Amino acid sequence: MEDIKCNVGVLKDVLGSSMFSFKGTVVYCAVLHMSEPPLRHEDDEKAYVEVKCKTSSHFHSKELERYISNYINKIIHKFCILEADKFKMMQINIFISEKYSNILCCAINSCLLALLDAGIPLRKMFYAVSTCQYEEEAIVFEKEKESFIHIFSHAFGKISADAIQKAKKDLEILEEYILFSLRDKFILVE
Questions:
Q1: Could you read off the pLDDT of 97-123 as tens digits, one per residue?
Q2: pLDDT tens digits, 23-61
Q3: Residues 31, 15: contact at Cβ < 8 Å?
Q4: CATH number of 4-181: 3.30.230.70, 3.40.250.10, 3.40.50.2000, 3.40.50.300?
Q5: Does the predicted TM-score (pTM) go above 0.85?
Q6: Helix (H, G, I), strand (E, B), or coil: what is residue 176?
Q7: Gap between the Cα atoms of 20 and 118, Å rounded
Q8: Which of 15, 69, 146, 177 could share a disulfide with 53, CB 3.0–4.6 Å?
């Protein structure tokens, strides 16, 4: 996993924001604010989450934007402690600005960084890695104490067990980049 760039606090006037870049694909994420949820909110015991995704190119469809938004929404519901902000609505915007490969991988990592920058509590850390075997590939892991557990994979093709093991090895490098980008935000204790 070379060619990674990431940072937090890249936008003003939002709760949290981030940029994550990998192999030329650049994704920005912003946690806009916590506000009142819509009147018809399904689960009053958890925060309502709204994820919007936009691309900078007219060549990509609304279908791609919905696809990314839906996956990010699932990740947020799995890893965020939404019960801590019940009766609120969390708005998250994702903007894909350059190139277009490994978008979901970059979006997941950018979302992680923006959530941490905003101070949104997480159940566990999560990371997405790509082996670049396919143009669009995301292999997602959660951190369980000192090990990484494979949660799901998505690609426009079959991901082998060997590819998942290779991705697992790349996780340590990715985690270092992400933790380094958070160095001014948190005191990290080993």
A1: 877 788 899 999 999 999 999 998 899
A2: 889 999 999 977 766 655 566 677 778 899 988 765 567
A3: yes
A4: 3.30.230.70
A5: yes
A6: helix
A7: 16
A8: 69
